[in-house]
Specification:
Blueprint lengths: L1 H27 L4 E17 L2 E16 L17 H26 L5 E3 L3 E4 L15 E5 L2 E2 L3 H10 L3 E8 L2 E9 L3 E5 L2 E5 L2 E3 L3 E3 L2 H28 L10 H19 L1 H23 L7 H18 L5 H30 L1
Antiparallel strand pairs: 1-2, 3-12, 4-11, 5-6, 5-7, 7-8, 9-10
GO cellular component, one term: membrane
Protein name: M50 family metallopeptidase
Family: Belongs to the peptidase M50B family.
């Protein structure tokens, strides 16, 4: 129950941070904010302060920052529609920026207990896999796998797990950059004391570096960049059909996952390790929200930025303004579709939990 409560609070914090990004930039850039709300649905609490109404609502699955003239020109000189394109862009980007910043801050805070970091190097070769003469040498530091940069130890493992039986590698060997193309490192099924496992026969992370303040900051930035890349990989898998609708999770499924992760980790490694895992997942979700919100999909911030760019191009070509009603119509239809998708995912989450 503790970890489920943490997960619910986690969503509230991430939503609040996202909407606060819109809120503070709108205030700073002279846009009137009519309401700042955390959550959706029935109002649990509300307060009017100045020109802005603040509210907390029942369902922790969303939130909003209602700007004056957000959908149409209301004649107010402080309306969103009356502001310049660059001001609008900053306000729309601010939500995702705050989510990304939150993820990076969490990662940095989680690194405080770290004493050292594993380097993505070849530590050796497992017996029985026949890859000792594949072209790699003990001490080689991975720089890229199939064209994707390797920044952390987990990068090397993740990218090698995604690769096929042949892989293109770039490594650093004795201070020099070595390119290894079409390296044959097949997955092989081997019996072990723990059961059947699939491995490539490589041991990783034989070297470490001390976790100084500078190293923690750099590695936290690398970790955040790696999370962004993982989101893009996941989107690519979804488009290619490598994952299906049944693999999608919404707030209900994520809360369940956080609860299971916390409980299972606590039973094997203790409460401290469980909290670390839960907050690391929170950082990943924060980065995920930042990326997903910037996709050029109507009803999301990225879709609104797309229409903003489209409006600038239309104005330069035709010398006329693009009628906001077209954007509003598209956003309304897509928002209804998005609500339908969220409802379907929620049903799928409930069925999966049951």
């Amino acid at each position: 129950m503790l970890y489920i409560i943490i997960a619910i609070l986690m969503f509230g914090v991430l939503i609040a941070v996202h909407e606060f990004g819109h809120f503070i930039t709108a205030k700073l850039l002279g846009v009137r904010v009519n309401e700042f709300s955390i959550g959706m649905g029935p109002k649990l609490w509300g307060r009017q302060k100045g020109e802005t109404a603040y509210s907390l609502r029942l369902l922790p699955i969303g939130g909003y920052c209602a700007l004056e003239g957000e959908e149409e020109d209301t004649g107010d000189p402080r309306a969103f529609q009356n502001k310049s394109a660059w001001r609008k862009a900053i306000i729309l980007l601010a939500g995702s920026f705050m989510n990304l910043l939150t993820g990076l801050v969490i990662i940095l805070l989680l690194s405080i207990p770290a004493v050292s970091y594993n380097l993505p190097v070849v530590g050796g070769f497992l017996e029985g896999y026949g890859v000792e003469d594949c072209g790699l040498q003990a001490g080689d530091r991975f720089l890229s796998v199939d064209g994707h940069g390797v920044w952390t130890y987990s990068d090397a493992k993740f990218l090698l797990d995604r690769a096929g039986d042949t892989v293109d590698l770039v490594v650093e060997r004795d201070g020099e950059r070595v390119v290894l193309e079409d390296l044959y490192l097949p997955f092989q099924q081997k019996e072990s004391e723990e059961g059947v496992t699939w491995k490539r026969g490589l041991l990783l992370g034989a070297e470490t570096i001390p976790a100084t303040l500078g190293t923690r900051v750099v590695m936290s930035l690398y970790e955040g960049a790696d999370m962004v890349r993982m989101v893009w990989f996941s989107l690519g898998d979804l488009v290619r059909g490598a994952v299906g609708f049944q693999d999608l999770s919404g707030p209900i499924g994520i809360v369940g996952t956080v609860g299971e992760l916390g409980t299972s980790t606590a039973s094997t490694a203790g409460t401290g390790a469980a909290l670390w895992s839960v907050f690391y997942l929170m950082a990943f979700i924060a980065v995920n929200l930042a990326v997903m919100n910037l996709l050029p999909i109507p009803a999301l911030d990225g879709g609104r930025i797309f229409f903003l760019i489209l409006g600038v191009m239309f104005r330069r070509i035709t010398r006329r303004e693009l009628d906001p009603k077209y954007e509003n119509a598209v956003n309304t239809v897509c928002f209804i579709g998005l609500l339908g998708l969220m409802a379907a995912v929620a049903v799928n989450d409930v069925i999966r939990l049951i």
